[in-house]
Structure formats: C-alpha cells, structure tokens
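Exercise 3.2. Students should predict the tertiary structure of the chain below and write it as structure tokens, then compare their answer with the key that follows.

Predict this chain's 3D structure.
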Amino acid sequence: MKVQFLGGADEIGRSAVLIDDSLLLDYGMAAESPPQYPVGDVNPDAVVVSHGHLDHAGAVPALMSSGDLPPVHWTPPTRDLATTLAEDTLKLHGSTPRCPFTDTDIRRLTQASVTHGYGEPFEAAGYEITLYNAGHIPGSAHVLVDDSEVRRTSGNRTQSDDGDTRLLYTGDFHTGDQRLVAPSTARPEADAVVCESTYSDVTHEPRDTVEQRFAESVQQTVWEGGTVVVPAFAIGRTQEAMLVCAAHDIDCYVDGMGQRVTEQLKRHPDFLRDADALRGATSSARFVTGRDGQRKRIAEQNTVIITTSGMLSGGPAMTYVPAIRHHPTNKVALTGYQVEGTPGRDLLDTGSAELDGRVLPVSAQVELHEFSAHADRDGLVGFLDSYRDTPVLAVHGDRTAAFAEELRDDGFSASAPELGETVEL
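Answer key:
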C-alpha cells in the first residue's frame, strides 16, 4: 500500500491522503489568504471524508469539476456540514480565483454522495472501509482502510496485491468529555496508523474545570450589567457553548451560521451524545435574524451572545464586538485556539484587532476558554498505546517531527511524512 500525503503533513490544514493513486482520504483547504489547497493533481476512484470541517472537507467539491463523479463516502452529518461549508465558501470566494469549484460542482457532489453509519463496512475503490466514532464533532470518523480481503481492481487500474494491510486514519479525534459528542473509544486492529497531532505538546485542563470557569465568568459579567460576546466556530463549538449555557441556566442569543448547523445536527440524533439536551438548549436559546438593526439592540442588553466567527475573521461578530468594545464591564469570551495572524489572536495579544476593515482598540475584557475538540498529548499517547507495535505516521500538527521523535523515545515506531511524500507500507 502506497500512501501519499498531499496536505496536512507538518501543517494544520488542507488534509489529504492518497492511497495507491486510487482512494483519497479527505480533501481540505487551509483558510489562509489566499486559501491553500492540497498539492498535486488527483483523479481518485473514490473519496472518504473523515469529518465536516473546512481543513478536511473544504475542497471536496473541486473533485467534481472535471465532470467525473467519484463516489464520496461519509457519515450523514459530515455530508450536511461539508455541503454547508461549500456553499459558504462559494459565497465568500466564488467570484475570485480563490475558489476552485462552482455551484454546479456542489450539485454534482450531492449526486456522488454515499452515506454510512459507524461500524458498517463498505467498499470504496476496491478497499473495505469502516468508519468509527472519532469523538471530535458529530459525524467525525476514524477511517479503517483494509486491502486484505477485496479485489484490488478499480476502474481501469489494477494494483499489485502484494500485502494484507489495514491502515487506520484517525482524522481529528478527542478521547475526553464533551457535551455534544461521545469520546472516541474504538481501537480497531491496524498495521499502520496515520495520526493527527494538533495538541501534541499541550495538556488540556479537565473539561468540567474549563466549563465551570466559563460559566462563572459569563454569569459575573451579566450580573454586573455587562454584555458577553462568545465567538464560536459554527460547527461543534456553537452547539457546545449552547449546551454549557443551558446546563448552567444562562440565557443566550445565537447568531451566525451556527444556527443552521444546529438545525442540521438535530436531524442526526444518533450522532449526538444527548439529542434531547441539544433540543432543549435550542429551545431555550434565542436565534437572531439580524433584521432591522436587531444585532445592535441585542448588543446593548446585559446578555450572552454566541456568534460566528470563532477567530473574529467575519460573521456577525463584526457587529457585536465593535458595539461592546468601549466598556470594560463587557467581555469577549473566546472559546478556542486562535491561529496566529487572525483578529482573535491579535485581540488576545495586543488588545486591538482588525474588525470589519478597521483596527480597533477593545476596552472590554478578553478571555480565552479552551473548549478543545482535539485530544491533548495524554489523549494522543493514550490512543496510540493500543498501537505500540504498529508504525505511526504523525500528521496534522505544527510539530509533527518533534512528536514523532518523542514517540520513538517512548518505544513507538514513528515518523513524520513531509508534504508530497509517498510512504510504502
């Protein structure tokens, strides 16, 4: 089995792994300026997508642009989320060369879509594939690729059947508690593991500690008459913040693309940890339409507003943060890692940020609450403990070589592929 890394090697973003020039695992984009896409030209016989985040699924519609329609396999939530992201990307970049696909490609993608549940083996490009819950966001999956018991012929290509190999591609995963999804617990037998390493040098605080500190901080600000803006990613983090607010009896507004995503996820209760809890949180939250100056009126209330974008790079946050920035009683409660160069990171580091085209000082309090949906160092090593006799390829991180070396020091057979490199298993 030949495994080529077209993206996500020693970087976070544009994940793409090509197996034997035939099976493509993920095809994401890096939301930089301009956006970055996987390297090389691909014409896969089939695609499997691990989950519906931009850096893993954002470029999948571009695979439809040639007119060929390779089947795209994923869970039902991933299908819905990836389609939503594609439509949003087209809205933002569709009139520029930054977007490699069209509305026609998105329609073709719906024709090529094939959905699967967890633990249900299926065939793709001549491999047997099984998806397992990865505990990252609803529908996220570990992908097990098995070439040992299927015919290695697909389309006009025939690969040599020179080995029985089971490759586990972890995608993004979490082994800890979240309110929205259950943690990853499946550890299928594998001959090699391609493992994410986003937080390979970080130890997360216990989730209940993070949640309690967030709830107390938000409640204190509201009690003092302030307004709290909670920038949150539309997929996963908005719903997690809603669930936390509901559990602590905190009234909140919800604005941005997270509203649409919430309604989509409610249609897939089998992929949620507690579907009733999400329905209850949705019922108690107030969704914002944005009509007739509604956002500015809400920003004047002493309330909590959960809104996109999570790194202050667009969305309704561009109205709310400037509206509350003048008063130190108010608060911006960031809920996840802020990438260097984003307005959210600038706000944390300097107290100012470019918001809707203007660099503005922010007198409101700024806090970071790490509601991470990734495994930390202990979670990664704990997961890999099941594969101590298995080669590990570290990807999806900014220190993959260092992590691989640390794993080797701990007795693992580990390496960190470079961008474009092909590894033979």
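Discussion points: The two ends are 5 Å apart (CA to CA). The first strand starts at residue 2 and ends at 7.
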